[in-house]
Amino acid sequence: MSKKKVLTVWNNDGINEGEILVLRNPCADIAAPFDEARKRDIKKLIDTFLAMDEAVGLAAPQIGISKRIIIFRNKEFKEKNWSKSESDYDVLINPRITQVRGELVTMAEGCLSCPEIQVEVGRFPEIKIRAYDQSGRKISKRYTDYLARVVQHEVDHLEGKLIIDYEGAMYIPKERQDFFARIFKQKEPVNDETVTGKL
User: Which residues are known to be catalytic?
Assistant: First the structure.
């Protein structure tokens, strides 16, 4: 399996300006039927995701592909050594949220592209999605609870939106306070050493 580097907003040296440009760029749709170049992009995203044990989800721009493709676990969210069989993850191409239901539920989220922190984000507890599957078939799916949160997080990536764009409390490891104080001059961080699943 090939594994591509996950782009991040910062590293130990500071802000990653070049990577931010890719992460902030809204992604383009993929025309169906998928040509060979797009099939390769889909395969790269799947292979990269499957090579990672800690990821719950991954969006194409996180590996430098500015196309509307996401992949995420559909079960075993907290398992580090999950089965990685095709039935345990979903791949959505050109996903569109067509319906939302319920009151926003706030929960701390982590992100591979915003390492070491969590931000409280309000998400809808139920959504409906229209998309293509990886073989190019039109599909419509309903996601609820934590899975709805994961899908909304990944769809945000396709629009160039990150967890740091939300106004919720930010949780930062105590030993990294000085570093993140320089990175986030406007946000008030909340001290916390707990960082859980990364979307």
Answer: 154
